[in-house]
Amino acid sequence: MKVGFFGGSFDPPHRGHIALARLAIERLGLDRVLVAPVGSQPLKRGEAASAPFEDRVAMVRLAVRSEPRMEVSLVDAPRPDGRPNYTLDSLQNLRKELNPGDHLYCLMGADAFLTIGKWHRAGDLLLSCDFVVGSRPGFDLSKIAATLPETVSLAAEENSTPGCLAIGLRGQDGSSSRLFLLTDLEQDISATEIRQELRSSAAAALDPAVTAYIAERKLYRDLA
CB under 8 Å to 185, separation ≥6 — which residues? Predict the structure, then answer.
């Protein structure tokens, strides 16, 4: 089984998130995409999410309710010890729940991937599973090499996946993984802009059920 892990703040979850997951399912034949709201973003320590974790989980459930291959995962829930949620730890914990033959992919947008060199144990993370990155048309491919940690380099990869640009990644110890770049993701949506927009009106980039939940729970009203 091909399983995608899609972590993030989802604050709130919007149509761009769903579009990326759908495209990954279509192009790579993923059987499941586990959408996992994060408890505490390591690179945003000290910056509380605008909506509590429980509300973000509820909104994701609403956003994926009509997507048969998408489901909510709590693997990235807040840690009891208060430590930040590191993606490498979450992927390792997720593997314990999967079958030995399952193939794991990590999904993210291009903007997030371009910061991956700053992530916890970035080299180990990039070689722990295959990655699927959604980017808009015209994405500068040279930025990928520039963002990799020193312990990971690009390797030749035969592209046998229609609709994807496959890039090989190789570690200094000979370990390897693949990066699948989806270069035609048309959605260009900012969660920050959505939160600001919600102060005065419903955001068009949201599922109506998510918009209704936000209104009912009075979320995002206290933003400056």
Answer: 19, 20, 23, 109, 134, 135, 136
Whether 41 is covered by a domain: the verdict is: yes
**Quick check: is 19 in a domain?**
yes
Predicted TM-score (pTM) of the model is: 0.89
Using CB atoms within 10 Å of the CB of residue 217, give its burial: 0 to 12 exposed, 13 to 18 middle, 19+ buried.
Answer: middle
3-state secondary structure of 154: strand
- Please tell me the distance from the alpha carbon of residue 25 to that of residue 3, in angstroms, as a whole number: 9
- Whether residue 11 lies inside any domain: the answer is yes
Domain count, the chain: 1
Instruction: Provide the residue range defining the domain that includes 90.
Output: 2-190
**Cβ pair 160, 32 in contact under 8 A:** no
Structure tokens at 6: 């899609």
pLDDT tens-place string over residues 15-67: 889 999 999 999 999 999 999 999 987 766 555 558 999 999 999 999 999 99
